[in-house]
Amino acid sequence: MEELARLRTELDRLRKRECEFLRELFDVRAAAEILNQKIDDIAKLMQPVAAIDRLPVEVFSRILHFALYVAHDRAWGMLHPQRQQFASVSRWWRDAVLNTPSLWSVICVSVSCTASFVETQVKRSREHPLDITVRDWWHSTGYDALLRSTCRWRSLTIGYVDNSLLLDLSRRSFPRLKHVYIQSYGERDVEFFTTDNTPILEKLVLEYCCRPITSLPTLEKLTALTLYGNIDDWQLKPQSIHLPLLRTLAIDVDNPNMLLKAIVTPELSQFDYSGIFCRIPFTRYEVPPAFDGLPSVFNKVHCVSLRSPTKDSVATVCQVFPNVRHLQLRECTSRFLYDLRGNTHLWDDLEFVTFYSLRASVLYAAVAELQEWFRQRKPTAKPLHVRFTRIKHRWWEKTGHLLSMLYDLLHENCSFEVDEFVLTERVRMTSWNRTLHIDLQHVPSCVANMRLGQDVPRHESMDDPQDVSEDDPSDDEEEESSSDDYW
Predict the structure, then answer these.
(1) How far apart are CA 426 and CA 439, in angstroms?
(2) How confident is the model at residue 460 (pLDDT cuts 50, 70, 90)?
(3) How many beta carbons lie within 10 A of that of residue 230, not counting itself?
(4) CA 48/CA 57 separation, integer angstroms
(5) What does the buried/exposed string (b/e) look like for 81-110 if buried means 16 or more CB atoms within 10 Å of the residue's CB?
(6) Integer angstrom CA distances of residue 149 from 104, 127, 175
(7) pLDDT 10s digits, 182-236
(8) Is pLDDT above 60 for 124?
(9) What is the pLDDT of residue 301?
(10) pLDDT of residue 129
């Protein structure tokens, strides 16, 4: 009996130890799990995170919106693929793309789009104002979601669409629509942009507008108007179109004189003239002078852009626009300076002259005319600033010689700048204090000195970018020996 009691006591002791070991094992496992979680958390914190992923969501969304705007500006069809590419970078990027309404506010519709795709974009844009582009679309069915959102449309671009879509638009209201751009308006007889359905329309662009736009005189809030096409059949009466707030007018039509006599624009400040459309082979009539017989009603116009030559004399142009301060010329209109040279009593308030896309051969002649004009200008005339934008030159033409020529001939008579100029020679740059010093062959050093942080205003040009090849790599031995000093 004593032996049995001893064995039972020993068994109870062993079972107690077993329970203690099990409790200790559970405690060790729990502690190990906690330590393992802490190690994972610390490891994640130590992993490098891209700087862009540390930005606030609002800032990051604005960056994505800007990138999408650039993609849409270059090619409207690339907008959605670019959006998909952003969403595939990471989960954070995807959440930012899907949950930012402004990234879905630009909606591009074409024949390849489905109704569900358009409805998804409208839904994700929530209440954000919409910028709509519709192209190559020949029926308006299946886009109810888009048409139901017209109250949020901010801008509309239409190109090559069926008349039924314009008819649908004419029945709807656009209380927030500010910009309308219609391509290939052609023989359309439907006008949806009226004072009633577009009460705050500010900018209107019509291309190939053949039929008269009867609603044009009612758009009293319009501030910018561009007309391109054949308007000879409009039969406009003088002073029949009153646009009291219009500040910018650009025309490329076959009868500009009739249009300018019809429009009353007391606040017009910028005028852009082009006669390219008038010179195409299928025009039916010879284009009359653009400004002949016009009264001096454009007294507030301070910027005039001549994209093509006119049959009007310089005196006529200066009489119609007597207070011009900024003149913009293209290569085909650079001879305007030659005629202006004999009328030095005109445009005494002229302060800026901008040349766009001049070839090097034309540049020399233009600068020579400028020199002669400076000699004949009144001493009381305002100082002049000249800008050369996108000078076209061949790869074998030394850019240093061009800049040196401009400096030698112009620096004593006016201030000047060269914008969007492609260098074809080696450049050496150094900085001392806050001054950027550029050494360019064949150019005096004083020409290339500039202050850092000075931002010169730029004027956008509609010209195509020039194609400038790289300079010939074959240089003389002296240049090769000093190549370490250049980039």
Answers:
(1) 9
(2) very low
(3) 21
(4) 19
(5) ebbeebbeeeeebeebbeebebbbbbbbbe
(6) 13, 9, 11
(7) 876 555 555 677 788 888 999 999 887 666 666 676 788 899 999 888 777 778 8
(8) yes
(9) 93
(10) 93
Q: Determine the Cα–Cα distance for residues 267 and 256; give it in Å rounded to an integer.
A: 19
Q: Which residue has the tokens 């023989």?
A: 187
**334 token code pair:** 């650079």
Between 332 and 100, whose confidence is greater?
A: 100
Rounded-to-integer distance, Cα 231 and Cα 225, Å: 15
In this structure, which amino acid lies at residue 336? F
* Tokens (6 digits) for 464: 């195509």
Task: Locate 172 and state its tokens.
Answer: 């709807």
Spell out where 19-178 has E strands.
Answer: 106-109, 130-137, 153-161
| pLDDT of 398 above 70 | no
Q: Helix, strand or coil for residue 274?
A: coil
Burial class (CB in 10 A: 0-12, 13-18, 19+), 453: exposed
291: its two tokens: 């400004």
Spell out the residues 6+ positions from residue 253 whose beta carbon is closer than 8 angstroms to its own.
Answer: 227, 228, 229, 230, 231, 259, 277, 278
Strands 153-161 and 130-137, sheet pairing:
parallel
Q: Are strands 450-451 and 435-440 parallel, antiparallel or unpaired?
A: antiparallel
| pLDDT (0 to 100) of residue 467 | 38
Which residue is listed with tokens 């009291």?
A: 244
- Residue 269, CB-side half-sphere exposure with 13 Å CA sphere: 4
The count of C-alpha atoms lying within 13 angstroms of the C-alpha of 408, restricted to the half-sphere facing its C-beta, is 11
Using CA atoms, how far apart are residues 400 and 441, in angstroms rounded to an integer?
A: 6
Residue owning tokens 């008269």? 212
**Total number of residues shown for the chain:** 487
In DSSP terms, 249 is beta-bridged to 225, 271
Give the lowest-confidence range in 324-333, 393-402, 478-487: 478-487
**What's residue 448's pLDDT?**
47
Q: 233-269 as b/e, with b when 16 or more CB fall inside 10 Å?
A: ebebeeeebbbeebbbbbbbbbbbbbbbbbbbbeebe
Q: What is the distance between the alpha carbons of residues 321 and 340, in angstroms, rounded to a whole number?
A: 14
Rounded mean pLDDT of 250-271? 90
